[in-house]
Queue: 4 jobs
Job 1
Amino acid sequence: MRRVPVLCAVALGVLTVLVAARWGPLIRFDTAVSAAARRFALHHDGWRSAMSVVTHSADSRVLLPAAVLLAAALLVRRRRIGLLFLLSTAVTATAIRLALLALVHRPRPVDRLTPTSGWAFPSGHTTSSAVAAGVLIVLGCAALTGRWSRRVLVAVVGGWAVLVGVSRVALLAHWPTDVLAGWLLATAVTVALAQVLRVQRSFSTGRQASPQRDAGRSHRPEGSPEWNTSQRRTDGGASSSSPPASAPGTTAPRPNWPGA
């Protein structure tokens, strides 16, 4: 897992160089996929409408209020590391994306099926949705304890981020490699900052200990004076030094005193 940010960063660097150099095989691949996507969308109105809904779910007017609400929730619950992770991930990913936009200056596809503006590489909607999904997955998996709840979270949120990237290609808002660059950028930044800030550890140390199932025992190290005192109280004095009482109808053994 520690190698994921490095591998994604290297892949993003190589992809950026190839796109900036207008490498022939890469350009032909993007052109072929975009042409096929346009033909399919023009012949399937339902598909185009669905992709439009998905792509607008990652608009700034949707993600910014959601980020503010999440930041407020983290602040109220005093999750400072989680709040720092949210803010630093968003700022870092946005800064790198804007730098790549200014560096590459890649035009978008011509026959777009949705309103767009600015340069193409890397995709802004793809990067933003992938960062949002990554933050939710990291924070959610740190807060949740159930295995299935974590899997559902990863499937739903991760699937949404993937669909946003697909919608950008389906509507010819971006070339396929623009979307790939957004995924690589978001993954590298999110995983790297999650590891540096130790988000998982901050949630696990802050989680309250679960109540003891045995209500008669206190949470003290076994063998300590406090534990021994609690144990004697729990056992109801069974460890007392007084001899046990004799059963009814029996005679207690007579002490063998010297000289008796």
Job 2
Amino acid sequence: MRKQSRKIVVEFINYNMYRIFANSDMRRGLMADWYYEENGAQRGPLSESDLNSMLVNHLLPPDTLVWTESLGSSWKPASQTHLEAAPQRVTPPPLPKSEAAPPPLPAAAAPSLGRQVTVSPIPVPGGIPTEKWAMWLACLPLILLAVEIAFVSAGFDPYGHNPQAGGLSIWTGIATIWLAYKDAKAVNNAGRNPQRKWLLPFILLMPLGYFIRRWYVAATPLTPLWICIVSAVVYVMGVGALTAQ
């Protein structure tokens, strides 16, 4: 009887030790850092749950190359790992053939409604393009130059110490911060910044600094940066022409 009870106690201890080690291995797997490839560049690190969320929500294709410490020295497609994949869309079978429709009535027998009713499709709202606010921010120097030309034409000095010049500077700063806020929000909503790294504070480094940070964090095109540089050059040339008058 003692031997049997001792055997039961030993088996109970071994079973609980196995559960402890299994749970610890599972937690280490969930807490491991993951990396993924996008447009030939390495992205990460991020948690397994964040990477799973991007795959399930179609932000990354199933064949995206991923890597974590347990994969050793090779990258593998996400579909060949234990990561969750987006559900495959199933195409429904073709509809059954309906019975032949009766021939239309002659034109003379068709009742007249007195007026024709046109049915238009209901418009489906589309998403906000990610680059829209960035383009407005990049063209802001040209907009400011147009306003300053209007001030000079009206007889005001936009570069002197006067209320008009002070108000123009304040509104320019507000517009810059607001456009950068809207663009950073659009980038986050599009899933391009899953770790929510800082974007908006970099507007303090001028729009050029913001666009460089935006490209580095979200891997967005550099088109707004080049447009901003050209706009800034045109603005400086325009201000030089206005002050020379």
Job 3
Amino acid sequence: MPEWTIRPPEPRDVESLAALHVAVWRNAYRGLIEQPLLDALSVEAGVDRWAATVEQATSAEHDHTVRAAFVDDQPVGIIEVGTARDDDAPRSAEVRSLNVAGRWHGKGVAQALMAESLGTSDAYLWVLRGNDRAIGFYRKLGFELDGSERYDDVWRCFDQRMQRPAKGPFETPARSSRAPQGPSA
């Protein structure tokens, strides 16, 4: 498999990010979220969401980071990490979303995205109850279920909270490559 490059997504990427998001959700959540809800996902609707997410992440007042892994200029994974949004947040940072194309599972893309975006920060996240693959992955990165659950009215499912304390940086997989970094703003 070719190497990936991690970089902040740009406005020109939003349609392909929306397509990735729809494909990942339809694959990963089959049997965990009602099928009509997954079937209703559309790239067109996702374009607006990802355009807003990319724009907010690059604004001067942003409170989150978005990074994507690209192969041949097509996204194969995307992560959004930001300040905690929950009133009772157990940690300072929240992994808001992590989506990786199925054919890239187990290749180090998700781990590299986590390393790039989270570093050594303490963090928490919400994972769909029953998503054993994701729970196992997050456990490898030091996250543990903390017993908190919430019901998602939109997706009609339960989420479980996982958290980890601050720790050393993740080991970035050797197959990844990073885009050159420009000057800091």
Job 4
Amino acid sequence: MSTLYATKTSPRGAAKPGKPRSRRAVLMGLVHKAGVQLGLDDAARRAAQVAFCGVESCKTMTDAQLVAWCWELKRRGAVIGIPVPAQVANHPMGPTDWQLVSIERAAVALGFDKGWADGRLRAFCARTVGVDAPQFLSRADATKVLTGLHRWQASGSKRQDQRPTTPAKGTP
């Protein structure tokens, strides 16, 4: 896992590592970079943000909204690398970065807007693998949690497809 650093340019032109940046700061920078790549001026980017998540400023977005907006911009064609969440497992057989990002994306898609801090995600982990703290997940446990989240997503979409539609009044 790499640490995100701001780089400062010295008078001689060599880049020096600076203070580590928070993931949130990096995501906000990526939103602005993606807007430029997609040819959106500031007003157009803010209008698109309001249409997507109902918030005009990146500063007032929740972390989940910010991550979802970055993934949406990437889907629209921006070439940005979205950083993985901070490593929650400190052991060699802990979940991979890919597993952590995938669990976070699936949780956001299900409406768990606080990511790993959301009590619903922790309760789901506890029901699925018996571990309620993500720092204690193994790779196998992370796979089970991810599979469970994907199945939950799929069952929700199937239930919506199976709901009977009521015809409008006056139609046969």
